[in-house]
Amino acid sequence: MLFSKNVKSSAHCLPSPDGRYIATLFPTLINVRSVQSWEPIHVVRLPQDFIGPFLSFQWSPSSRLLLVASFDQLRVFSALDGNYHATIRNPVAPHLKPTYIDFGASDTEICVMASFGLKLAVFDLNSSKAIEIGSPKFSSSTAVRRGFSFRPQSNHLALLTRTAGKDMISIHAFPSRELQRSWAPDTIDAQGLLWSPDGRWLVVWESPALGHKVVFYTPDGNLFKIWSGPVNPTHEEKDFALGAGVKTVQFSPDARLLAISDHSRSLSIVDMASTMEVLRLQHPNNLVPKGTLQIWQERIGISHGPIMHTFIRASQAISPPPRPQEAAEQLSGCATIAFDLSSNLIATRIEEFPSTVWIWDVQAAVLRAVLLFHGSVSTLSWHPHVRETLLIRCEGDHYNSVVFVWDPLSEGPQSVDFSQQLSGFKAVGKWHASWLGLDASTPLSIFYSDTQNYVLASLADSDRESLPWINPRNPQGGDGPSRAESPLELVPATEDEADEEDALQTGDDGDIVMKDTYGYKR
């Protein structure tokens, strides 16, 4: 395993979706670094009237633009040169904090959700117009993404709204976002909607308090079918209709399957070719090792040096550790569902056993692996371009700056400890880790960042493999932490950049005027 050298970071530091760049937002500038050369390639100077605190910092889907948001302004900059700059002033009502700010279906579309569900504002940077849609059903930061979805290929926007106690679904065309159709779904209290990856289906699910119900609509809004719970429930599930209903749904990347979880320990798999349930996965209380099932138990070694995380394969029957009895709230059901790139494996985490990861083979309809940790599992993330490779993060004091990587051919999860690459040997403030989204031709790499430093880790077997970065100062990455780079160690300003800064100061920043608003009725 090889590490890059440390680079100065901040609370806002993100790799681009394609994995080729890393952008860091500082109080007065944005530093964009190339992963390949490991050198800064562009510096964006923030206008003097654009000051923090910053609410959002995002890459565009194409890795071409950067979005920076404060309370009263949104700024969009070109990540690689100074040829683009747009400004949106007062995107929501004064004194209201937006709960969601991000790019929409394209690089030139910005979505902003106002507090208290007042409106969803969609800004088109090309036409300098804005569309406001009132009464979105979900506006909190934790639930807002369940309330709208963009259709793949065509980029149609499906939005769930609620007015006078009645749910409504509206379909808006791209890029104008003109209303094409709206209808009342066959639900009483819908909890979300989602387009399938191939754009053939729009699914809506009912509140758990109202039973098991997932509604399938065609793209033009016609009702096709309703799923009302397990087709052949087991003896333990014979009274499923009396329990809570749908908790979450998730499509496979190839759109062939839909996973539906409720508040039990079961997971339903629906074949989208027939929209029929074809598989029911049951999380067992007792785990018995066998040829097709790998059970890995974590062991933590604590000494004067770094904490060591190793895994041993269970040879006897074992039960996964339950949620602590002193937990503030006793939860149930499958909280996390994640399909891998091949759509053959599903990783799940259920509330009753929060420190256990279950990995299922849906083609063979068997449980392939169970990973038992000491701490609660917080995130599961499959690699976006490599099949059957899972990144796991846990919570707890023993997991400071540590993540785990699992694949079917490995001898248990492999720990990746970033703390030894940091100046203080521990994270400062909040930290996060994610896959570096490079293609499968490069060794697997992980991006890590806290509020002071960021670093990359390559899972290459040896230094002879080609690394995604060039690191002349610390080529092996195993000799301890390197000197953190200052944000002032940047590329020298060129004449073009100086001209760009002068242009910004003149006020020629492409302000967007909110002049095209409308409401709609069924």
TrEMBL record:
GO terms for cellular component: microtubule organizing center; MWP complex. InterPro entries: Centrosome-WD_assoc (IPR052778), WD40/YVTN_repeat-like_dom_sf (IPR015943), WD40_rpt (IPR001680). Residues 467-522 are annotated as: Disordered. GO terms for biological process: microtubule anchoring at mitotic spindle pole body. Residues 494-511 have a biased composition (Acidic residues). This is WD40 repeat-like protein. It comes from Neurospora hispaniola.
